[in-house]
Amino acid sequence: MSKVDLKKDLKHLYNPSAQEVSVVDVPPMNFLMIDGAGDPNVSLEYQQAMEALFSLSYALKFRVKKSNGVDYAVMPLEGLWWTDDPGQFSMSNKGIWKWTAMIMQPEYVTGQLFAAALAEARRKKDLVALDRVRFESCHEGLSAQIMHIGPYAAEEPTIARLHSFIRENGYELNGKHHEIYLSDPRRTAPEKLRTVLRQPVRKQA
């Protein structure tokens, strides 16, 4: 049986420097996704989304292991965050946020495999958000990113630094704020949490 380390293979996307902003070209990748709205810290909808995403991701991992002979670690939770009015996007007003919670899936996972895993999960588990999960490709392309180390609530200065880099280097925002949660907050001290902050960009006209 072969073992695949996806985070190692995609190190430039999942382990950027915390010291400086980098510019990367993010290729199309497939994800399990669920959309929602509201403050993730108090939203039952967000908790239900995570349960469904991880349940399906592990089900797919075991199906791939059985059918393809490939073993891999389930990828971390990721999130796209935005507001209808970009000017109102603020860490202090999370109640108006909209979000897409998602987990990247390796190339071995197909639409057919997803449909089979979803059908099996429906039979075995009573997860409210299962029917809202979709399997979809996401292509961010040119993006700026940096690693934030510390509590989620303390991200604002790092986000400001990311946006300053974008402006100062002739780019402009071109998509939704993207976070990748590399640490398990249940087992990691807040000051040691590692989160990739990514922002799709394009060259200013």
Q: How does the helix and strand content classify structurally? A: alpha+beta
Shape: globular
Cα radius of gyration in angstroms = 17 Å
Strand content: 25-35%
Q: CA-to-CA gap between the ends?
A: 50 Å
Number of strands: 11
Indicate the topology.
Blueprint (H helix, E strand, L loop, with lengths): L1 E3 L1 H4 L1 H4 L7 E5 L2 E9 L6 H25 L1 E3 L4 E6 L15 E8 L5 H14 L9 E5 L2 E9 L6 H13 L2 E3 L3 E5 L12 E10 L2
Parallel strand pairs: 1-4
Antiparallel strand pairs: 2-8, 3-6, 3-7, 5-6, 5-10, 8-11, 9-11, 10-11
Helix pairs in contact: 3-4
Provide structural commentary:
By secondary structure, the chain is of the alpha+beta class. Helices cover 29% and strands 32% of the residues. The termini are far apart. The relative contact order is 0.21. The mean pLDDT is 93.
Offer a few descriptive terms.
alpha+beta, single chain, 205 residues, two-stranded parallel sheet, nine-stranded antiparallel beta sheet, globular
Could you give a short description of this structure?
It is built from 5 helices and 11 strands; from the N terminus they run E-H-H-E-E-H-E-E-E-H-E-E-H-E-E-E. By secondary structure, the chain is of the alpha+beta class. Helix 3 (44-68) crosses helix 4.
